[in-house]
Amino acid sequence: MSLRAIILEEIQTVAANQRKTLPPLTDALLLNDSGLDSLCFAILVARLEEITGRDPLGEVRQFPSTIGEFVSLYEEAHA
């Protein structure tokens, strides 16, 4: 399974666990429009750190604004 697929699956899992409804997850979808709140993102980042062993968000100056940027940040950290 690709890292992209893992991240998208984790987004869906966190949303389901927090009873959030997600729109279709496209690269252009703004994170603010994703239906996830700050708690969801905190859970997501913690889960991804457990899975990948890294937290690339701790190294960025600006939080990604789209799903595509979010995924790319993790992909670049693992290249």
The biggest sheet, with number of strands, parallel, antiparallel or mixed sense and barrel status, is: none
List the quaternary state of the chains.
single chain
Q: Whole-number average pLDDT? A: 93
Tell me the distance between the termini.
15 Å
Q: What does this 3D model show about the protein?
A:
By secondary structure, the protein is mostly helical. It has a single domain (3-77), classed as Non-ribosomal Peptide Synthetase Peptidyl Carrier Protein, Chain A. It has 3 helices and no strands. The mean pLDDT is 93.
Q: What characteristics describe this protein?
A:
79 residues, 0% strand, single chain, Non-ribosomal Peptide Synthetase Peptidyl Carrier Protein, Chain A, mainly alpha, globular
Quick gist of this model?
The chain has a single domain (3-77), classed as Non-ribosomal Peptide Synthetase Peptidyl Carrier Protein, Chain A, CATH 1.10.1200. The chain contains 3 helices and no strands. The chain has helices at residues 3-17, 38-52, 67-77.
Spell out the blueprint of helices and strands.
Elements lengths: L2 H15 L20 H15 L14 H11 L2
